[in-house]
Each structure stands twice: as C-alpha cells, then as structure tokens.
Protein 1
Amino acid sequence: MKTREKIPSIYAYNDFRKFLVDYQAARQKIEPTFSKSQFSRSLLLPNTRSYLNDVLRGKKVSETFVERIIASVGFDKHEAQFFRTLVRFNQAGNIEERELFFEQLIVLNRTPKRVLDKDILVYYSKWYHSVLRALLEIHRFDGDYARLAKRLSPPITPREAKKAVDLMIRLGIVAKNASGAYKPAEKSIAAPENMRDDLLRQYQLRFLSLAQTVLAQQPGTVPYSSTNTVSISEQGLKRLLALTGKFQDQVRSLVHKDESPAARVFNIGIVIYPLSK
C-alpha cells in the first residue's frame, strides 16, 4: 500500500465503524481500483460483499475478524491494541464493560500532536469534571482542594479535584479572573461535534446512573422529576425532538443571562428512547 500518512489515524476515532468507512474512502483515493470486494478478499471472504456492509450496519465483529482487519489495514502493534479495545468498547454489552474499555482507550491513545483532543477525551471520562467547572462559578477557589472536593455530591478526593482543575486550565475552559480566582471561561459549553458518539453516550450514562442514586438516596434534594410515556407518529417525534432542542437552547440562554449569582450546581438530563418496536 502507498503512503501510510494518507490513511486516517485510528487514534482520532471513537467508533471503529466510522474508521472503516473513512479508511475505505482514503484507500480509494490512493488506489482508485480499491473496492469493498478487494477489502473483503483481504479478510479471507472472497465470495461475499455484504460482510462489511453488515458490520457498518451494526453486525458484531468476532475476534477472528478483528485480527483480519488489523492485518489488512496494516496497523502497528500499538494501533492494533487500540483498535481491539475500540471494538470491544463499541460492542460492550453492559455499562461495566464499557467503563473498563473506555478507561483503556484513554491510556492507549498515542496522538501527541493532538493533545487537546486527548484532554477533551479525558474531560468527558469523569462526571465530576463538568460539575467542578460549574462549581467554580459559585465557589472562590483558593487552592484548598480538600474543601473543593467536599462541595460535590457525592464528594470526590482532593487528588481528583486537583487533577480536574489542572485539566480544565490546560483546556482553557477555566482561567484566572482579575481578582486571581479560577473561574469558568464560559458560562455554558457543549461537547465538540466529533464527540457525539459512544464516548459522549458513556458520559451521559454516568449522569443517568448518578440520577438514579440521588433519586433513591436523596429524594428531598431533587427539585423536579417527571416521566412521560407517549405514543406518537414519526412526524410528531420530529417535532418533539425540535422542541427539545429549543428547550436546551433556552436553558443555555437562561444560564448565560442569569443576573443573580449562582448558588448551586444542577444537572438537567433529557432522554427520549423507544419502548416499542
């Protein structure tokens, strides 16, 4: 194969299927004769074109075919390990497995020239990073990490608090103000577009799990909770999703324009999911 530099880096991906799509497109630019059939043959599947399409549609990839893909793409030792872990993360059957492989992905990421991307990955790996960022808006941080850590519910360790603050300073989402206190650089931030996949869903799952704990153990601290189960048309669903998007925009606007000093940190979660086929 021609220059590896033109092939996308596996470290830039959070979804192995998206990598396979981009890999095929890059190979075709380098080698116009390259096709899905040729890729299938490299995976020792000479009589089928549908395997890769099935994988891209969600079919699980066995360890045997993971190794064949690794050999076909030509990953080095470290890239191969990252790819194996990424496949396991994307195909994990429960939250515990996803958590395990998610942490491994962070450790295995070897993209030194994209430090910011890696730091963003770390930022969304812990629920308390975003909570601390919001807490710094209402808490004058004077270097007392033990006090800062205790302000969270549930509390974290002083070491975790220090690592989180250092990370946010590196990312530029927390900075010193005129009086020397560390404060959020913006009142509201959103995940980058390339994070809207499994890694972001893993982050959201942590907050859903945290909501379960708070509702079960500290119901008196929850100012509002509600569930709605509805039957709706496809057109109605589109309207509902648009309405939800507008609500999120209104929340960000309200927070940004809030004229009174912030008093507490809250999480607002909205999940729309099917309960029928």
Protein 2
Amino acid sequence: MATQNTNSADNIFSGLKVVDFSSFVAGPGAAVILSDFGADVIKVEPPKGELWRIGNRIPPQPQSKIPYMWHLNNRNKRGVAIDLKSPDAAKIVERLAKWADVFIVNTPHPAREKLKLDYDHVAQFNPRLIYADITGYGDTGPDAHLPGFDLTAYWSRTGLLSLLHDAGAPPTWPFAGTGDAPSGVGLFAAIVTALYRRERTGKGSSVTTSLLAAGVWSAGVAIQAALSGAKFAPQHDRKNPANVALNVYKSSDNVWFVLVATPDKIPALAAGLGRTDLLKDPRFADPAKLAANMSVLTAIVDETFSSQPIAHWQEVLDKAHIPYGLIRDPQDVIKDPQLQANNIVVPLEGAGENLKLTISSPIQVHGVAKVPAKRAPELGEHNDEVLKELGFAANQIEQLRASGVITKPTAQAKAA
C-alpha cells in the first residue's frame, strides 16, 4: 500500500465541527469525507437507530452479520441518539448548532420544520453556520415534497436508467447507493465552497444539492444533447452497435470486456484480430456501407474475440495500445492491486476481525494524510461525552435520559 504522511496536524479540517443529522448514504457520505481529513463529526440518530444500521440484512443487499454499510458511511464519527420529537430535545439542537461549523440534514422539509431542524431555526443560533441540505428533487417545484431515493430521483427521473440498457432489454435495477454516493460528493463540494466563502466574508450560509441535480449532471452529455435538439442514435444494441469498435465482447473463457478503439486504432485492431482483410472489404468501404453492414462486421469481430481466451486478447490489445476494460464483479474488484496501491481501500480499525478494510473517500491531497479509518459508533455511544462538551451538567444529562430524550449506550458501546 502506498505510504502516507501520518502527521495529524496536516489534516485540512482539523478543528472543524460537524453535526450529521442525515441518514442513509449521501449526507452521511459528505460527512465521512470531512472526517477523512480531520473534522470532528457527531452523528445524530433517533432512539431506535438509523435504518442503515441493519441494511446488511435487508434484501436485495448482500447479506451479512456485519453492518458493513453502516461502517462505510459513518466511520470516524461520534454517535448520539436523541428523540427529536421530545420538547427537551430543542435544548440539545440549539447547543449543537452553536457548537458546529457544519450542520448536515436530509430530513424532508415538513418534518424538518416540525423538529426545528430547518435553516431559519438553527441559523439564528450561529450566524457562521454552514447548513448543508440534500433532497431528492430540490427545494422548490411541484415535487419538492416527495421523498427521494437514488433509484427514483437519481436513476429513473434523470434518464440515466434509459441510457444503461441495450435495445429491447428492460431497464435494470441499480445497486444500492450508486446514485447516493456521487450525490454525497456533490454535497461535500457545496460545503467546502461555503467554508471558503466564510473564510473570505465571515458569513455562514445554506447550501444544497439534490439527487435529481446530481443525476442530471451525471447524465450531462445526454441531457445537454437533448437541450441542443441533437438527434439521438438508437438504443445501444451489442449485435448491431453504432460503432463496432465501441462495444462489449466476450472471450472464449467467458470474460466480458468493453472495447474503446478510437478511429486511429482501427488498423491496429484489425491486425490484432488477424483480419486486416476487413480494412479492404467492399462491404465496409465507406461510411454508408459500413452503417448498412454494421451487424455483419460486428458478428465477425464477435466471433473472432470468442475464439481466444482473455489473456490472449489482453496481450494483443495492450501491444496495440487499444483501451479496453474487463467487466468485473465486486469479488474481483477487491483483488485489484490498484486499490491498495492508491489508498482507495484502507485499513479499518475496531470493526472486528471480519471487517478490516474499508473504502476511502475519492479525494486525495498530496502531502496530506487522511485520518486513519475507525469503526462507526454504536447507538448512543457518545451521548454523555458529547453532552458534557456542549455544557450539560451530569444531573441534566441524567434528566434527559430519564425523560427519554437520549438513550442509554448499548452494551457494545460501554465495552468499547
């Protein structure tokens, strides 16, 4: 694994205080990136805990006794559990707002206002506060009130799902979090932009993004084409693609791979396939004939690729400097040496013998170390610690616990 400078004084966000009221992936993911660079993040959950704690047991997610997704999205955080519906919770929210530099929320707006987590309420306690809000469909408009999930707001609504299946095939089902995670990076960018503005002006601000906005940005080439009135090619068809050199093929040992051969690489590709005759074949002699016979040419290339194992084609394509990518599943991805060589996968401390590695956030600053990744908190693990820092006396903390505003730490947390 690549070495890193481990001087904690170099952490960019050391001293930055973050309160994470958000749930699931996008909001918590933004907080994780801040924590990777030294921020002190307090995760706030309801008394029974966030649903993502048990996502590892909810089909169709990969089943495990280990709450792997909880650790991924909440590592390095301190955890408190508060019943925000209790009137006395407002005292804690007020002190958290005064303590924090960044306040992350993804609660739907009507519920947010009832819980007094809306911007107007919390910003009155701290004019330097960066209030970070992520929604499904944006703050305004006819669907602003709808609950947002990456499957609905990021994938379906933005057109991405319509772009990611072959002609004649039904839309696929994206894997959990694949829209939330990039949306979280967008929220992180909004937070950092606001922090930079605060450095210049001294003023806090409210920043936002949405799964819809992030999804449209991800589908930007297609959406911009639509805005420009461009003519779209038919849905991709592997057996009759728009371009035979930009397609998916399979080797004789059943390994699928994507081929990305630019026009200047076509002679080398033909040579590597042992089919230089195709360059002079009258059926493919000009663009019009090529388009009319694309399925014929594709069948020839498909048959050729299926005649040899992937190791052969890797050698051929590498020698010709033709880009390609093996289509890997997650069990293969974790074996990729590039991940540890580039600190994409890093050690995780304290999560148990069966979970020793985790995924680092996708941002590196050369010469600056990230904080070593530590397990996510148990439910209510840091209630007393955090409340004491906020100025609550021991008897006040006991009163809050007795009235049900805060929970007792779990057995695991007590032992930690």
Protein 3
Amino acid sequence: MNKWIIALTVMLPTLIEIVDTSVVNVALDHIRGSLSAGIDESTWTITSYLVSNAIIIPMTGWLSRMFGRKRYLIFSITLFTVSSFLCGSAWNLQSLVFFRILQGIGGGALQPISQSILLETFPPRQHGMAMAIFGTGVMFGPIVGPLLGGWITDNWSWHWIFYINIPIGIISIIMTMFFITDPPYMKRMKMKIDYWGLALLAVGLGCLQIVLDKGESENWFDSDFIAVLSVISVISVVLFIIVEMFAEHPIVNLKTFRNISFSTGSIVMFFGFFNLFASIVLLPIYLQTLMGYTATLAGIVLGPGGVATLIALPVAGRLVTSVNPRGLLAFGLITCAYATYLMSKFNLYADFDTVIWPRIILGVGMGFFFIPLTTLTMSGIKKEDMGNASAIYNLLRNLGGSFGVAFVTTILSRQSQFHQNRLVEHLTPFDMNYQLASRQSAQILQYKGFDGVTAQQGGLAGIYEQLIRQASMMSFNDAFYLTSIIMVCILPLLFFMKRGKASMHIEMH
C-alpha cells in the first residue's frame, strides 16, 4: 500500500480532532448567548472535551490490542463524527457538554494511532519525514482552530464549527476501511480487563485536567473544589502506577519508561509544548487587552508563526536523516527560548513587526524541536510497543500544553497584582513625577471644558488607568521570561538521549 495514501488517511481525522480542541474557544460567547448560559458554565464545553480526551489518549495502545487497531480506529472516527453532529444540534448547555465528552472519547485515540501507524509505515530512514507529516497536524491545529472557528462563527453560526467535521469524518471512515490494515501484532487479542487501572486512570487524569482548566478562575487551593480534586488526582495517579506495575495486561505499559531516551524525550516534549501553548495563549491576550487588536488581527499575528512551522517541519525532516538529531533538537530548543525571550521585551508601544517576528522565530524553532525530538524518543521503541509509547508521548504533550496555560494565566494574575502594589507606592503627593503628571492631566481636561474638580478627578483616574496597563504589561513580560528560562533549563536533558537502532540505521545509509 502506498505510504503517502496511508499518511493522508490517518492525518485527515487527526487534523480535525486537533482543530476541535481549540475551535470552540472563540465561539464561546456565541454558544453562551444561544444556550442562555453563564461564562463559567459555558467553559465546561471546553473542559469536558479536554478531560475525556486526556483519559482516552493513554488507553489507546491497550484498546487497540483489545479490539484490533483498525476496528478501533474506525469506531473512534465514527464516534467523533456522530458526536460532532450531535454537538451542532445541541438544544441546551447540558446536552452540548455531554456530546463534547463523547467527541473527546472518539477523538482521543486519533493522535496516538496516527503517529504509531506513520512510524510503522515509513522505513526508519524516513521517520523524520513521517513525523514532519504528523507535526504539521499537531502544530497547525491549535493555530488554524481559532482562526477557522472565528470565521465560521461570524459568517455562519457556531453550529457549523461542529457540522464541518461530518463530511471529513465520512471520507476518513471510507479511506480507513480501504487503506489501513493491521500488522500481525496489532490484531485483536483476548485480554483480562484491568478494571482498577481503568478506573484510577479515568479519575486521576479527569480530576487533573479539571484542576488545570479551572484552577485559576477558582483561585486554586483557596477553593475547596480544586483542593479536593487535586488530592483525588494525586492519590489516583499514585495508585494507578502501583496497580499497573503488577497488572497482567496493563492499560498503560509503564515499563516503556525503562528506555532512557523515551522517558527523557517525553519530559522534553512536555516542557516544549508547555512553552508553545503558554506563548500561543499569552500573545493574543496581550494584543487584545493592552494593544487594542481585534480578534482577527491577533489571529493574523499568530498565522505567520504557523506557516513558519509548516516550512520548518519538512526541512527538519530531511536534515534529521543526515545530521545528528541532538544538534537539531538543541537548535530548536534554543530558538524557542530566544523567541519567547524576545516576547518578554514587548512594551505598550510595540509595533506590528516587533510583535510578529518573535512568533515567526518560535514557529521555526518548534519545527526543529518536534521532528528530531520525536525521532530520538521513538527510535529505540519496538514496533509492537509503538502504540503504547505513542499514547504516553501524546498524553504528556497534551498535559504539557494544559500545564503551560494554567501556569501563565496564574503568573499573569499574581504578577499583575504584585506590580500594581509596587507602582502604587510611587503615586504620592511627595513624588515629583506624580505631581507633574496629575497637574498636566487636569489641565488637559480643563482645556477640554471640564470644571476644576472633575478635571482633577479625571486626571487621577487617567494616571491610575495607565498604572494598571503598565502593571499588566510587566506581568506579561514576567510570564514570557519565565517560560524562556524553563526552555533553557531542559537543554541538559539532551545529553541523556541516545540514538536508537532506527537512528543508527539512518547514519549507516
């Protein structure tokens, strides 16, 4: 079977699934108004999808062995397509949240299965190119999702962000039936179901995802809800690890972590996507809240970074076959750290070029980060273990993104208050700059026709507004700076990554 047809077959549903993780974010206001829901309630449409997605991803290898991979893939695409139709037809918020859970269950398996099929279909020397194809979907989805969602919502209605999945889903099911075949080691197996592992994984990851998604809005551990869920999550994950060590047919085979390159690569991937999602979330918030950009203009700033990634991915895919992958990975990491550092230098007077170039540099860095990292991480994994390894790897990638978003939104909130308190110390009648600014502001307002008292109060209000904007800007600088430092800190981990048999095979050619 032609490997390019197989690549298209597995990447088509994977791309729409990745797009669906972020497509709802921009349509949230329309959904809220249409279904008469509050802001907090409506965010459950995002959380419910992420929770069910996070639970299914690590189970994918086990479910593929239990039902047969091709059969399970067809079931997943079918469930995703049917639940997309139901999401678009939802009559109230409760029904939409329930259908989003089903959509997450259907979509969760698509990323790990497509990655493992690509790595099996392409020979070892072409693994770089295979991961360039996979990376195109993984990197492009979070960027094109908000743009596509905004355009569809504005021009049609929010229902169509779900309906658009249906024709693509049907084509994907037909292509999977014709072009995907199971290798002998992925045929259906009779296994005892690991009920304890299943329950602990669902509870542990479900609670963790809710904590990450809702933590900042609930003020973290000041909320009993978040504190209780955190304790349940920690206990469940610890018990899950213990249970899986002794299970005959574990849901997740944790022995894969004995491979040093795989375990190190998974940690590096976690922090790489921590940085990517943190910056992708921070940038539009900065542009829209402080710089007065519209949602469309903010999307235009993100867009070229996505294009840069699409160009960098195949280049990295070619180079990884002839250059030491660790060197390429180090270049990718340093480029990402540098781009995020440039973002930490933004101010309230940054022009369009100043804002767009760091995003393009980050896009190039992520292309050179993703390909060599995945090649190094997976090179020592046996084909029959690829499904399980791919599931763990994709779970840690998604969790990295969730942790990154939770981290930077918390930093924004806390540091903004910190800088505000520090700056307020200078707003005293004894500060010469403050005296001068308040006098000038009052004079400008008086010149515009306001009476003396109103002009004085208005002048002070204007100064305070500027203070809040400056404090907010400083908190963005802090968040970007911290994420760049985290990227630099993971550089030493590259020394633990060894090239496996696949990579050695590449060198010999």
